[in-house]
Specification:
InterPro entries: C-N_Hydrolase, C-N_Hydrolase_sf, Gln-dep_NAD_synthase, NAD/GMP_synthase, NAD_synthase, Nitrilase/CN_hydratase_CS, Rossmann-like_a/b/a_fold. The protein is about 40% helix and about 20% strand. The chain has helices at about 20-35, 60-75, 120-125, 150-160, 180-195, 260-280, 290-305, 320-335, 345-355, 365-385, 395-400, 425-440, 450, 470-485, 490-495, 500-510, 515; strands at about 5-10, 40, 80-90, 90-100, 105-110, 130-135, 140-145, 165-170, 195-200, 205, 210, 215-220, 225, 235-240, 245-250, 285, 310-315, 340, 390. Helix 5 (about 180-195) links the parallel strand 8 and strand 9 (about 195-200). Helix 7 (about 290-305) packs across helix 12 (about 425-440) and helix 9 packs across helix 10. The termini are far apart.
Length: about 550
Amino acid sequence: MTRLRLALAQFDFPVGAVAANAARAADLIARARSGGAALVMFPELTLSGYPPEDLLLRPSFLAACSSELGALAAATHGIAALVGHPHSAGEVFNAASLLRDGRVECTAHKQELPNYGVFDDKRYFRAGHGSVTAVIEGVTVGLLICEDVWVPEPAARAAAAGAELLLVINASPWDDAKQAEREAVLVARARETGCAIIYLNMVGGQDEVVYDGATLLVNGDGSIAARAPAFVDALLWAGFDPAMRTLHAEEWPVAADTSLEATLYAALVRGTRDYIDKNGFDGVLLGLSGGIDSALTLALAVDALGAERVTAVMMPTRYTSQLSLDGARAQAEQLGVDYHVISIEATCGAFIEALTPAFAGKGADTTEENLQSRTRGVMLMALSNKHGRLLLATGNKSEMAVGYATLYGDMCGAYAPLKDVYKTVVYRLSRWRNAYAAQVGEVERIPAAVIERPPSAELRENQTDQDSLPPYDELDAILGRFIEAEQSQAEIVAQGFSADTVRRVVRLVLQNEFKRRQSAPGPRVTTRAFGRERRYPITSGWH
């Protein structure tokens, strides 16, 4: 028979919102107590949000977290709560405190500080020493924080101290390989220690990082007892049988689609929604070109915010095809967004006329093409300013990798939902979203003609992307090996790719770092995102 009932708060606790986070935690403590839980768990750095970055350098911020922790502790009569927070004790620790009977009973400090990828814990925190255990209704639990479970020693120390159940609170960001990695790690820890494991994860978007929740219950023999859905806010109930060291979920929500495409799409929607809402914007604006990137961005924006908060603008020139005009209008009307068509032909002509004397003796080239893109950028920024809607950039990772984008043109925007999504994945997501729409009885989200057409920037007659780039299947295969896998050119060529093509792609990646440094943030969804995770020098002699 189950002897211990727990509540797991898989919720978003936004960075810096200390008082609001404490208020949400207090409400959840009350709900958990009324539901008969002996303990309610909260994610890593519940009070400060994760990652608070240089807010942790401000004494007033640390003091606010400490004050709210004390107030929460006072509310823990008849229930225990495990709460994450920064703990300032001469030095600053990433901490998890067990609150019970109106006080802070004990505090565990994060022992393993990640300092790779998006993590920068060593800039702010000192490492803890030794695992902390506590007894909840006769069950000895070990208190661990995120990275602590990714190496054997902290779990082993907790087990040696008598732990039967490991409580692991996390702010673990999602990427397309993360869930399989997590499960492998947790299975290994359970089998090594014989302890059951509750892995509670935060959910929500924070700047370029997206947390998926996807809380896990792992039995003492290493079998997975339950998986919570990704990107769902929920108070989850679980029971623990100490005699068998098994866990069970109590009526957890179930994801309708657990495919990679469904989860990735949910990550992009959540990242976009939270970025817009947490920064206080009424809605978004984007340039709708009739191409697949802007079409997918529009679908994401509508799913994230609702059609009433989205404006789409088509800005044609003489090079804009009827297919583009028809596709953009059809999608805007199907989705019910505010839609405008503003020709930039005359505006571009005025720029060219003004510049002609300074261009004397030089033929037309990409300058004139880029001028079209930059004219669109000026128009979109003016509309963004006038209507107070945040401009979304629509470029994808393949384009950003090789610099197939125009600074102050199509790179204009404050947020880029597809920044970490390769072009081939853009196609997969678009087809998946249409298939899901058909399954649930929605209108087609992205016109099929837009998906099937050859990709083109439409900046000159009969232009296609493949005039300038290898086919996207080939390009993305090379980029994945060079960026995510960090393979050398020789290693990539050895896998059957043309040496000339590999050299060209790698050269483009390296020489366009200066563009990426000026690009908008976007949700990180791969294992090697541009921005805070992949930081190559702009100026470098390494080729």
